[in-house]
Task: structure prediction
Amino acid sequence: MSDVVVADQCSGDFSPLQEYFGKLTVGQLARSRVTEQDVLEAAAPTHKMLMRVFWNEKLAGLVVCAGSDPFAALWTPSCGDSSHSESTIDTTLNLNGKMISCRFKAFKPVHSPVYSSDELAKSFTANQLHNVKRAIFSSNNLLDLDMEHITHFVEQMLPACEIIDLSNNRFHGYPLRETLDIPLLRLLNISHVHFVDITINGVATVDRVDFFQFLATQQVLLSKLIFVPESWIAAGHWRRLFTSCSSEVVEGVERSHRLYYKSIAQK
Result:
């Protein structure tokens, strides 16, 4: 799949898009982590709508699956290999780069050691996960509609999990805020969850100031949400999200972030 030439997929209504891809292959796009935003920016104004449809109907699934190829070499039974379905997982469930959005599971190769977000609860047993304190779902190109499945999985299968790492995905809350916001708030409301890391996601930007303004009124939930990469805390640009809030709110956010990064450094 990684050798597929993108332009060859631009047939029929999509033929005007061939010029944008030249001889680039799906594998090259996957290795470079090309996103929907990247291809839309490359398209001329008259082609942007067509490019969006092409991405959603064809290209996104191909890129995600091409990017999944290296996972098999990294796969270990402790991460939930079905051939060791009763192996107890230690304190960390690491699914970094081992998942695919449920939106694209139809493109998942047969026997691929990659989990679709809506299959997580069926892929593990309660006995496997009772010791898990940290669950890592980072770098999987997960979308807004996957948040509901992640939250359900944590609620049903991770009774002791304190840290949920959702960093470096594609969560943003667009075009429907509710698709992301409602399950994310539910995740933050889980009593045993101490931190939810959403750094390097569209939702963790000034584009979603509305979300942070709401959380500023829910300080317990805000104290759990990690949205600033550690190296960016000192710069303080994230404070712009809280310009109308008290210094107590801002100081609480910084304190929570420093506590979080200190805690994961010790694990």
The two ends are 37 Å apart (CA to CA). The chain is about 40% helix and 5% strand.
